Amino acid sequence: MISLGVIGECMLEFSQHDDIYQLGYGGDVFNTAVYATRLGLDVSFFTATGDDHYSRYLVGAWNNEGVNTNTVRIIPGGTPGLYIIQTDDTGERSFHYWRDTTPFKQWLKPGSYLDTLPEKLAQHQCVYFSGISLALLEDADRTRLLELLADYRIQGGLVAFDPNYRPRLWQNHTEATTWIDKAYGISNMAFPSYDDEALLRGETSHDKLIQNISTLGVLEIVLKNGAGEVMIFSQGDSGKVPTEPVHPVVDTTAAGDAFNGGYLSTRLKGAEAIASAKQGCRTAAQVIQHRGAIIPA
Ligand code: ADP
């Protein structure tokens, strides 16, 4: 079975249903992990969580989703990050986060977990991470992560990256571009979204955005654009893929994460980029017809 490692954070989620808040969980790379698992990859979650009741709840939930958790670092005394999805009278959703003390910030601190990380990463054909994963870490740990992934790539591993640019997670725009560019620089494959990338670069031309990422060394670029066509730039198999028509769109939360799960599961099994993007669109189309990041299996 083809194995994928995903690096990042999964938080507790409270979603509002009338006046009741329902407990769940979610996080960008974790959402991708779930869809890649459902589509037949063997997925390991490289993350950190605490040792309290709610951390155990999360690890149990990840296991129930079929995601391997023997790559999770347990931080003694830690408690998970949390977000609340609030829905206003018009149905508009807003996200509120409590993640300043998330255990993921401790994920790469020295210790036996870190010592064995290279060999654990090496057991996976592909490792996927995001700009959110990077933003949450301190500078020294960001450097450590990119060095680990650069080494992993030199040894033949495939590095996949979604910049998932969230301005409020970065101190300023320069910090974001600096680190996102470094991440592109060590990645084989990237899944930017047009809106994020346009905001990050102050550039509206699709071609120029792709050109910029290509100049940074990425060999396979998949530019998502909401309901618009997906643009693929890769050696040998470039083109445009129309998205699946969806009526009505119920909730676009995790559309990009689901796309990435669909794409990776197909691509890593040997399909070409265009066929993989079609599967990405199918997976995302399913997800946006339901509420929430993780739809029923
Ligand atoms: P992100 O969630 O990262 O911002 P996008 O909004 O670009 O990503 O959407 C990711 C993918 O989800 C798209 O490439 C497309 O396949 C699918 N998608 C998003 N919105 C729609 C829509 N309105 N109709 C059909 N597919 C959509």
Describe it.
This protein has a single domain, classed as 3-Layer(aba) Sandwich (UDP-N-acetylmuramoyl-L-alanine:D-glutamate ligase), CATH 3.40.1190. The protein contains 10 helices and 13 strands. About 40% of the residues lie in helices and about 20% in strands. A 9-stranded mixed sheet has the order 5-4-1-8-9-10-11-12-13, with helices on both faces. The protein has a 4-stranded mixed sheet with strand order 3-2-6-7. A hairpin with a 6-residue loop joins β11 and β12 (about 230-235). The protein has about 300 residues and is an alpha/beta fold. Bound molecules: adenosine-5'-diphosphate (ADP). Adenosine-5'-diphosphate binds near residues 252, 259 and 281. Adenosine-5'-diphosphate binds near residues 193, 230, 255 and 256.
**Silhouette:** globular
* Ligands, deduplicated: adenosine-5'-diphosphate
CATH topology: UDP-N-acetylmuramoyl-L-alanine:D-glutamate ligase
Oligomer kind: single chain
The chain-level structural class is alpha/beta
Tell me the number of structural domains.
Answer: 1
Q: In the CATH classification, which architecture applies?
A: 3-Layer(aba) Sandwich
Topology as H/E string? EEEHEHEEEHEHHEHEHHEEEHH
